[in-house]
Amino acid sequence: MKNKVIILGTLVVAFLGVIAFTTTQADAYRGDYTEVGPNHTEGREAEMEEIFESKDYNAWVEIMTEDGRNPGIVNKIDEEDFDSFVEARELAQAGDTEAANEIREELGLGQGGMRRGQGNGTGRMARDGNCNL
Q: 20 to 30 A from 43, CA-CA: which of 3, 11, 76, 117?
């Protein structure tokens, strides 16, 4: 009986460790302008810089969806909103995160992992942060 408890306890701790590690990796960059995403490379960063400088929406969609990726942000930012999205990025890079967050909120991006609903546990928010009511 003692061995079963030890084994079960070890498995639970290992499982929680895996969850904590993968959640941190996936959510660390959302809404935090100082963190890079899981697909970050120096080459990709240079491409993105060019795309944002030229405000080329189609090139942005292409790089964001390459290799079969389907990030939710591509569904939220359309060509009409792209200039505002770029402006929010520029403001954040300049250190004006308050103004950047205001634009992000107007675009329906919220604050990434910082605010997920009202915290009252009703569970009426979809995983992407959009209310399904």
A: 76
Listing DSSP states for 53-75 in one string gives HHT-HHHHHHHHHGGG---HHHH
**pLDDT tens, position by position, 48-61:** 999 999 999 999 99
Number of domains within the chain: 2
Kindly state the DSSP code that residue 121 receives in the 8-state scheme. S
Is the alpha carbon torsion for 62, 108, 54, 49 positive or negative?
negative
pLDDT at 35: 77
**Looking at the DSSP assignment, which residues form a beta bridge with residue 125?**
131
- Distance in angstroms (rounded) separating the CA atoms of residues 108 and 110: 6
Query: Taking the chain, what is the end-to-end CA distance rounded to the nearest angstrom?
Result: 48
Tens of pLDDT, residue by residue over 78-106, are 999 999 999 999 999 999 989 999 999 99
Q: Residue 7's domain spans which residues? A: 1-30
DSSP 114: G
Are residues 8 and 48 located together in one domain of the fold? no
Kindly report the pTM of this predicted structure. 0.60
Tell me the C-alpha distance between 98 and 107, whole Å. Answer: 14
